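Recall the central idea of this unit: under ordinary conditions, the amino acid sequence of a chain determines the structure it adopts. In this exercise we apply that idea directly, starting from the sequence alone.
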Amino acid sequence: MNILVFGKDGQLGRAFHVLLDSLLPALVDKPSIQYVGRAECDLTNVVALSDLLNQFQPKLIVNASAYTAVDKAEIDVDQAFAMNTRAPEIMAQYAVDHDATFVHYSTDYVFDGEKYGYYLEDDVRNPLGVYGKSKAAGEEAIAGVFAAGYGSGQYAIFRTSWVYGDGGNFIRTILRLAKDREELKIIDDQYGVPTSATWLAQVSLDFVVDGNLRVRKFPSGIYHAVPVGETTWHGLATLVVQLATGAGVPLKVALNGIKPIPAVEYPLPAPRPMNSRMSTDKLGQVLRARGDMSKLELLNQPWDEAVRSYVRNLAKDGLI
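Accordingly, the structure predicted from this sequence is:
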């Protein structure tokens, strides 16, 4: 089987590379895996993307690529839609035409954040900025292609939030600032769930393939994939500084120097949803029906467990 992973240089793409490499030695029938970044294929080039798909002939496509510069997207509209809408649509069309499986990732930014409680997969999309609009349009394009595809192929769109991994992210930014500043002002009225790229790669791969990397059958659609619990940016920053300090990392800021502020005091070009909490009941129901209790246990992992491990590893590796 051929597996094509887009976004190899991003946090999620790197997590997939590590995960798949760890699984290959135990397999008798090893798949052929190709990892694609910008150097290998410009996803805004429709012809180049189509040629790559047709030449490699993947049976599983993992699209971990995206235009994620949320604020820059407000002025770089065409690029955002090319990456987040048109490219996934082409991948989806290939999957339909070749009876392949397509895995795609979306975001809490497709919602306006005004709902009280946890968002469900079928809640109305109402993105606030260009990034969210481009991702929402991508979801709609994928669903539209498969709906018109006479049942060929299958797809899973995993909506997630606040991703961190091997690369630039909020946690590493906080740790960098904490080494230089005695005070940090962090938003405390936006709620969401920090999601480890490693965790997300494992959860989504377990959903679409078995232990031998053979594709499973599953109900196509959108699934929310975040760990259990919730926090604010201020809550996450406080935990991260506490963990780093406990690991012996010398920081200039103390816990009482992390000041909570409302989002209105930290204006940005692109609006953010105030509530990014998402229910994972739909994903859990499929895992429960399969009897995948170990996979269900991973889905139900509290968000702070992976954060603790992540910060400890950064400290151990001297990356703070």
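The two ends are 40 Å apart (CA to CA).
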